[in-house]
Amino acid sequence: MTNRNDTTLMQKIGEHMLDALYFDLSRYVIAAGLLTVLLLVFKRWANNRRIQTKSAKRGDYIREILSSTRTVIVFGITTISTLVLREYGIIQFSLDSVSVGLIAFQFAVIVVAHDAYFYWMHRTLHHKRLFLATHAHHHKSRTPTPWTAYSFATWEAVFEAAFMPLFLLVTSLMGIAYAGWALFFFLWHMIFRNVMAHAGVELFPAGWVDSKWTDWISTTTHHDLHHQAGNSNFGFYFTWWDRMMGTENPRYKEEFRRVAKPIVMSGRPAELASVAAMTMFTTFATLGGGVGLMVA
Questions:
Q1: End-to-end C-alpha distance for the chain, whole angstroms
Q2: How many C-beta neighbours within 10 Å does residue 230 have?
């Protein structure tokens, strides 16, 4: 016989499951879809800054979108598991209003923590005993597209999704209740940076890797080189871990300078509009990783 508490919990899971799937799917579709549209509308600008000479095929897009659907389901289940753990008081996060300063600080902390987690998790999945079962599917996208962002095998999706409940478990054991808004902004920042890393077109301005104020933030070329070679550039938001561990591709800055041509080529209205659109997209997506981190 099912007791009342179990019934209540199952009802809550049922109520939130569709919401969790909708949230994860909408993040992915909005971010990848918006960048895809921008790259199509401003095709001349994008082709001028394309990293590889070849482009993804129709079959690549189909594979990526289908496997991304599976990833959305895994992420949705993880979201539900996080809510269940919160229901039992195992992890804590607060939906109450908090100060902007606290949100910015917690956001910066989770971005830095996720960058460290991603580097070591990603590098571990490249081990010969794990690669085929976990990460090989993602590397079928030798020429990435924005839709590569969620193109994972089931096991990799599980490892990717595990960060959030693990992070909240650790912070909860430390007596820290994370702000819901900090988590919300982190999740949106994460997906936008993810699709940017797989754009296949360098979105960052020329000179980015030559300034001490910006060269610590990863560019599209940084991750694209990982898809080309597979044995370097394991980081996500920042270049810190690759440089500390000696895994940054030695051709990175050279390749970036090659593809990051001047943003404005002719000054035509359509081109200026494309520059404005791409600048807004890149600024929004990198705000937390760069400016937000320095503010905190």
A1: 51
A2: 15
Query: Contact at 8 Å (CB) between 148 and 138?
Result: yes
| Angle between helix 180-197 and helix 100-125 axes, rounded to 10 deg | 40
CA 61 to chain centre: 18
- Report the alpha-carbon distance of residue 45 to residue 70 in Å, rounded: 33
On whether the CB atoms of residues 279 and 180 are closer than 8 A, the answer is: no
- Backbone dihedral angles phi then psi of residue 93, each to the nearest 5 degrees: -150, 145
Q: Which 8-state DSSP code applies to residue 288?
A: I
Determine the Cα–Cα distance for residues 31 and 196; give it in Å rounded to an integer: 9
**What mean pLDDT is predicted for residues 227-251?**
96
3-state secondary structure of 40: helix
What band does 276 get if pLDDT is binned at 50, 70 and 90? Answer: low
Residue 276 Cα distances to 186, 205, 266, angstroms: 24, 12, 14
CA distances from 171 to 91, 114, 176 (A): 8, 13, 5
pLDDT band at 273 (very low <50, low <70, confident <90, very high): low
Partners of residue 238 on adjacent β-strands: 217
CA atoms in the 13 A half-sphere facing the CB of 205: 15
